[in-house]
Write a structure and sequence with these properties.
single chain, 200 residues, alpha+beta, 7-stranded antiparallel beta sheet
Length: 200
């Protein structure tokens, strides 16, 4: 379970948010694209990705845009399923900022016959995804926050019974929801110039 949070600056000092104490900045160990900030749990497999994306305009509704961003991160051979969609309260954002979240899962394609589990990287039985979409309409930007929660067979709470259809999420996802809620509560844009679209 997440024990506490630390004030964290993203994209220089343009965005601030609380991140769990035990999460480390992935850019300290490998290159991360300029439009992303990635944090990884040092005690498990959960990751947090904050991404600045160009606003998608072709989906007819905001919920469709939310699903579009989810489908964009699902690998071609994986199976993705959205379980629920909710509004995302953001107290530090301008009133009426469109913001939504979804709970989804991805299931990797089964390994080909004849390949032993020890001959390939550790593969999750499934990954729970908590995705938040914040639509910054004047800035032509979608701010996407994704919490990926892989369930690795044989590791910690991954073997707990989980039934998303019945609302039985398991402790890993419940912890992810606590992290998501703290991100919602504390996320703040300090420098709106980060999204400067320039002269058209």
């Amino acid at each position: 379970m997440t024990a506490g949070f630390k004030h964290t600056e993203l994209f220089g000092e343009a965005i601030t948010v609380n991140i769990p104490n035990e999460y480390s900045d992935v850019s300290d160990i490998r290159q991360v694209p300029d439009h992303q900030e990635v944090y990884l749990s040092t005690t498990g497999f959960t990751s947090i990705i904050v991404e600045i994306a160009e606003r998608v305009s072709h989906p007819p509704t905001d919920h469709d845009a939310l699903k579009f961003h989810f489908e964009d991160i699902v690998l071609n051979e994986d199976t993705g399923k959205v379980w629920r969609i909710d509004d995302a309260p953001l107290p530090k954002f301008p009133q009426n900022t469109p913001a939504y979240s979804l709970l989804a899962t991805t299931i990797p394609k089964a390994a080909p016959d004849g390949i032993a589990p020890t001959s390939r990287p550790v593969t999750p039985a499934f990954t729970a995804v908590l995705l938040t979409l914040i639509r910054l309409v004047p800035q032509l930007t979608d701010l996407v926050i994704t919490i990926n929660i892989p369930h690795i067979p044989g590791h910690q709470e991954s073997n707990e019974p989980v039934d998303f259809e019945q609302g039985q999420l398991g402790s890993l996802v419940e912890d992810g929801r606590r992290i998501r809620d703290e991100i919602w509560r504390t996320l703040e844009i300090k420098d709106w110039g980060l999204f400067d679209v320039g002269d058209e």
